[in-house]
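Homework help board

Subject: predicted structure for assignment chain

Our instructor gave us this sequence and asked us to write out the predicted structure in token form, then describe one feature. I got the tokens but I'm not sure how to describe them. Can anyone check?
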Amino acid sequence: MRAIRPERILMTSALLALLSASPLRADADVATAAKVETIIALNQHLSGYAIQVLLRDGRLRIEGAVPSVIERTLAEDLANLVANGVPVDNALDVNAPFARSPGPLTARVEDLDVATKIRERLEWQISTTGLEVSVEIDGGIARLQGRVGSPGASDRVATIVGTTEGVREVFNYINVDPDVLTEERGRQAAVAEVKRSDTWIADRLGAVLRYDTTVNAGSMEVSSTDGVVLLRGTVTSLAERQVAEALAGDILGVREVESLLSFDRPM
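My token output:
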């Protein structure tokens, strides 16, 4: 029998491995590499640095430079969080100057997140739903535009925006036009007539309380039964309790608010 040379055995094994490699698996690995690079690029501690994620021989390799081992470890932890079992090689150097601000992509994502919170509040709250108002956020600075029927509506929008987490300053360019008041109230009445489930109410109120910087949502519990909202928990001042109760009463679908919020004054 003719002997088979060892190098031919190795070549055959490599060829079989290549042929057996699934294109779907390769595509999945490329997608994973992109996912890792994205999660790093959006992280506020890492987005200010030039970091690449490469796919080599079925492994992810993180390259670039960060200022210390702390950021280096964070990049690896984030990569492993979404790597879906793909091995990660951390080749980041630790000689980069410290970035004083996050990258532009991270800053823009943060602004979009804040704008979404504001738009949700304006849509979910009775006093502002149906208003023709637009919101733009740039570096935490809110610019409001649109047209409303009364000065009170304009002030309510500005107050909601100014108390939303992530907003540093508000510029209110909303025009007050009494001619739109009738149409505006018609839209608000139509929206208010839509039936909301208790789950919808409790979920939206919980989110609004978390978004609002004047209350501590972590110390409150929210429930709703047939549109009657029950607030439980603690507050540190009468003003905080009044704000929480007012927010609860301003959510679409709420018929009544029962408050069991008690005072827990800080030492």
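Reply (TA_rk): Your tokens look well-formed. For the description, you could write something like this. Residues 4-22 have pLDDT under 50 and may be disordered. That's the kind of observation they're looking for.
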